[in-house]
Design brief:
The protein is of the alpha/beta class and 204 residues long. The chain has five helices and eight strands, in the order αβααβββββαββα. It has two domains: 75 residues, Transcription elongation factor, GreA/GreB, N-terminal domain (Helix Hairpins, Orthogonal Bundle); 100 residues, Transcription elongation factor, GreA/GreB, C-terminal domain (Chitinase A, domain 3, Roll), CATH 3.10.50. The strands form two sheets. A six-stranded mixed β-sheet has the order 5-6-4-3-8-7. The chain starts with a helix and ends in a 12-residue tail after the last helix.
Length: 204
């Protein structure tokens, strides 16, 4: 049976994962989907109105409404797939203030040393390992948010202090060493955790 080009080059769907989110994230997802549905209804009204204005070949309003509906449909489909493919567990950041610090866990502030195997260059970072989608940084403390499902977080979660571990990363192999682990302060959380936003989803 001959192989079809579409099957050879089709990128498989990502495997389902567990995504840790802050309380309210599921509500934000639902609100985003409802907003897209309302937007689609309005666009359909615009399309019907433009359709009534005559020759569709020169009707730019009709064409624009039609393309806008397609764009909304793509976003709704992508959001629906995102929700269907993953499970979401809500985590309250208040629990991060008193977590045990034997190994690096979600909610810890950690100083991490990264040594590139190919070049031996070393880099040092201070991260708050946080929930899905967080990218804020705190100029006062120098802490950056590191989403738990990022490649770097996946490589260091579970590590103990001063235990060098060679890990594969998108940029190449590196030796990761956790130098310190501590709990964040409430003030640091207040500065780092931003308002919950819906995900930025790319069309499949």
């Amino acid at each position: 049976m001959p192989l079809h080009r579409k099957k050879i080059f089709h990128i498989p769907a990502p495997t389902p994962t567990t995504i840790y989110v802050r309380p309210g994230y599921n509500r934000v997802l639902a609100e985003q989907f409802e907003a897209l549905k309302r937007k689609r209804v309005d666009l359909v009204k615009d399309k019907v109105e433009a359709h009534s204005q005559g020759d569709l070949r020169e009707n730019f309003g009709f064409k624009a409404a039609k393309e806008a509906i397609r764009a909304v449909d793509r976003k709704m489909t992508a959001l629906d797939r995102f929700v269907a493919r993953n499970s979401f567990i809500e985590v309250d950041p208040v629990t991060w203030l008193t977590k045990p610090t034997h190994t690096l866990l979600l909610g810890h502030v950690a100083t991490i040393e990264k040594q590139d195997v190919a070049t031996n260059r070393k880099h040092r970072f201070m991260f708050l390992v946080t929930t899905h989608g967080e990218t804020a940084s705190d100029p006062e403390s120098g802490i950056e948010c590191l989403p738990h499902n990022s490649p770097l977080a996946a490589a260091v979660l579970g590590l103990s202090v001063d235990a060098p571990t060679k890990v594969p990363l998108p940029a190449g192999e590196a030796i990761m060493t956790v130098r310190t682990i501590r709990n964040p302060t409430q003030a640091e959380l207040d500065r780092l955790l931003t308002a919950i936003k819906p995900p930025e989803i790319e069309d499949d």
